[in-house]
Design brief:
With 225 residues, the chain is an alpha+beta fold. The protein is built from nine helices and five strands. The chain has helices at 12-22, 27-41, 56-70, 122-129, 154-157, 161-171, 198-202, 205-216, 219-224, and strands spanning 6-10, 91-98, 101-109, 139-141, 148-152. Strand 4 and strand 5 (148-152) form a beta hairpin. It starts with 5 loop residues before the first strand and ends with a helix. InterPro entries: Acyl_Trfase/lysoPLipase (IPR016035), PNPLA_dom (IPR002641).
Amino acid sequence: MQYFDIIGGTSTGGLIAIMLGRLRMSTANAIAPYNLMSGHVFSERKFFMQDGSFKATKLEEAVKKTIKQYGDLKDEQEDMLDKQANTDVCKAFVCAVAVNNINHPTLFRTYEAPRTSPTCKIWQAARATTAASTFFKQISIGEPGAEVRYIDAALGCNKPTRLLVEEAQLLFRAHAIDCILSIGTGQPQFVSIPTPTLFQRIFPTRIIDVLKKLATDANRVADEM
């Protein structure tokens, strides 16, 4: 049974958007693979000073296994673009950012849209949206010689509700938006700037942490909407 017309997400939210919107898994069917995926991916840390704390190959393996089991073609190399997406099936997109243009999120869509999307496989879109810099290394997507490197869009687009509304307005021009359901953005947090110590004046790590919290704040988006 289909409940939504379009689903969007960033990072783990993007992974869930792919499972529900692109692979058309039911919520019940998605829970177990998601838990298994998490256990497999985060079971082993990489050596210190490597790019990312965990192995991206483990994430790719887990995502490909899920695609092979639940995808329409049972093929781990299935395209992100859904050949059925022009019908009434639920559409989905996930967010990432190109490392050379982090001000503007890139949407990897399952459907044709007036705005262009990168051409890629489902697993590549999943890798791009989950490539949090402290967890996984970047991923390069594109033709040889024209690849673009992506990371997740948590900084600035941790809660892509506004993008979801824009996409819905592009796709369903004749219809009003009846309902928006936002899940998994966490509890609101107070962001404050502590009085700097002498050490913090030289190495302002706390200020960096404050800026990170501001950039990933999801509650502000909810207030604006």
